[in-house]
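Predict the holo structure. Ligand: nicotinamide-adenine-dinucleotide.
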Amino acid sequence: MDGVNARDAHYLEQAFSRLEICDDTRELIGGSYREIEFDLTLELDDGQRASFRGYRVQHDRNLGPFKGGLRYHPDVDRSHLRELAASMSWKTALNDLPLGGAKGGVTCDPRVLSKRDLREVTRRYVARLGNMIGPELDIPAPDMGTDEETMAWFYDAYGLQHGDQPAVVTGKPVALHGTYGRRAATGEGVALATSLAAERRGIDLQGATVAIQGFGNVASHAALRLAEDGARVVAVSDSGGAVYRSDGLPVASMKALRDEAPRRGDRPSVRDVAEGAEPLTSAELLALDVDVLVPAAIEHVIDEDNADAVRAGMVVEGANLPLTAGGSRSLEARGVPVIPDVMANAGGVIVSYLEWVQNRQGLRWSAEQVTDGMAQRMRASWRTLCDVADADDCGYRQAAFNIAVERINTAIALRGV
Ligand code: NAD
């Protein structure tokens, strides 16, 4: 199972055994359908010639067209994208979306490239993929280092070759076939998953303490919603460190101050905008004695070395893959419930799906319709997840794999593959 990271391989194997899946189908579900890698050489704004590596990993297409983000980051490589592409397949399957899983990226540092350079990288990336993407084939979306503007360039570049097709990419600006609610969707969904899980655990979110790692798109929207719902968000962080305030951070004003800053360029750190807060290290944030811990920044932050230090009553994975295999098993062994990424941060792909549906119908729904559509789907996923966790007597992550694998396996059988 080359395409699956060590953490997920364990849960995937368990799901295969439970469903008595044959070796051939295991290979099919565990590995990538197709991996594309290419060179992107271009002349930069400053006249220098630069070469970047571009990738698209298409993992599974049995439930529908491939779907997954496009990442611009110096650490992008094929094996990492494989893990993320497979994770998208479990996420779309768990959330009952008629889509498969994929992930793509370019190994570059978007912080040092000009806007023109990034636009050129995007145009060439689209040209290289040619007929391997499309509204019925593979639909990218924003991820780390890409945003609405990147998706607008993507849509335009695809249209030059294939005719105007807004449904080729999601996460576009609202003014250019995007949907209301996409920007906040993942964080809003993380907050909803937190409240559903808290309800099941008998935790009253009113006044409950929450620590959130990160203050980017996902983390800041989750923080805002949780604070509005009455939780006490006592800590947040960014790459410069964390901040703590026992009576709750002023997350609304912190977010407003950061949003005022230019999108590219230096943003104030959370320490600059958190009034009355004390500084913490990122490690101290993860070890806070809180009701809920939400790692919502980067991957692999809780591993076997620091999992014992986690004192939170519950962990909600806002980021993709924030727990390693060791971290995940260590928390499970101590009975700390973990709401897996494929459930907790699914709001983003659900609203991307709703954007795709609108584009294919030539409609625009109201913000309320989109928010309600996302909430309904997340509630349904959560009910199924809890039912399977109870029936199979397992944790939430194992239940998520049992559901996803069963759905993909059924599609494979019905297709007669
Ligand atoms: P982002 O770039 O907006 O924010 C990332 C945040 O992490 C920033 O606040 C950054 O300062 C912080 N950070 C970076 N290094 C850190 C460190 N060492 N310690 C603490 N904080 C650090 O990204 P995002 O869109 O918010 O995505 C966050 C995570 O959620 C990623 O794993 C992403 O794949 C996942 N995710 C995002 C979406 C989406 O719709 N944006 C959807 C699903 C999953």
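The chain has 15 helices and twelve strands. The chain has a mean pLDDT of 95.
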